[in-house]
Design brief:
Elements lengths: L1 E2 H17 L1 H8 L7 H13 L2 H4 L4 H15 L4 H15 L5 E2 L1 H19 L9 H16 L4 H18 L23 H18 L2
Antiparallel strand pairs: 1-2
Helix pairs in contact: 1-2, 1-3, 1-10, 2-3, 2-10, 3-5, 5-6, 6-7, 7-8, 8-9, 8-10, 9-10
Length: about 210
């Protein structure tokens, strides 16, 4: 089970990891974007971090809703609306729940991914965040169906997201800022797919430590 305390630890770990990787994410964004993805994600989660004291006693839906609304209001570019919508959709799935079962966690990841797909009007194969998230959800569903533990479900989802992230390197971007570059977008790893992998990896680390 994932409790509200576990979710807060996940968010804390996410904030730490995005801060540690802000230069890496910005370097990935430099050749195909606005060279600000790492800076933007770090800014957003730094704003979330400032709200952690007030989030400690919230239910899970309240925590995720706070993250979503904070990212929408503080993160520049496309990342704020996309990730903000993802967390808000995840919050909707968690409404009324004091803890999340493995089934709930998979549904939360599905809602998270669906939020990005709806807001970005994107699909896999377009060199976006979804190229990491969609395989992650599929792997999580498969592991859940096999009766795996939450730690295994999130670990396998993370592994699938990493493969999806790496698969963006040879892709031609057809969505977002990178699409303006045409064939020059080929050969670069998508920064959004990378940040989503880091978010999932953070969740898997919390689940592994339960």
């Amino acid at each position: 089970m994932l409790t509200n305390k576990d979710v807060l630890h996940w968010l804390e770990r996410t904030a730490d990891v995005l801060h540690e990787n802000r230069v890496y994410l910005t370097d990935l964004d430099s050749p195909i974007g606005d060279a600000d993805h790492g800076t933007n994600m770090d800014r957003g989660f730094s704003a979330v971090r400032a709200k952690f004291p007030s989030m400690a006693d919230m239910d899970i839906a309240g925590q995720l809703k706070t993250v979503g609304s904070t990212l929408v209001s503080t993160v520049g570019g496309a990342s704020g609306p996309l990730y903000g919508t993802a967390y808000l959709r995840a919050a909707g799935m968690a409404a009324g729940k004091q803890e999340l079962s493995p089934t709930d966690v998979v549904a939360m990841l599905d809602a998270f991914t669906g939020g990005i797909a709806a807001r970005g009007k994107a699909h896999t194969g377009e060199k976006t965040i979804l190229d990491a998230l969609v395989p992650a959800v599929a792997a999580a569903r498969l592991a859940l169906g096999q009766g795996a533990s939450l730690a295994t479900i999130t670990s396998q989802a993370t592994a699938a997201s990493e493969e999806g992230m790496k698969a963006t390197i040879p892709m031609l971007a057809t969505k977002g800022r990178a699409s303006y570059l045409g064939e020059r977008s080929i050969g670069h790893q998508d920064p959004g797919a990378t940040s989503s992998w880091l978010i999932l990896r953070s969740l898997a680390e919390i689940c592994a430590g339960q």
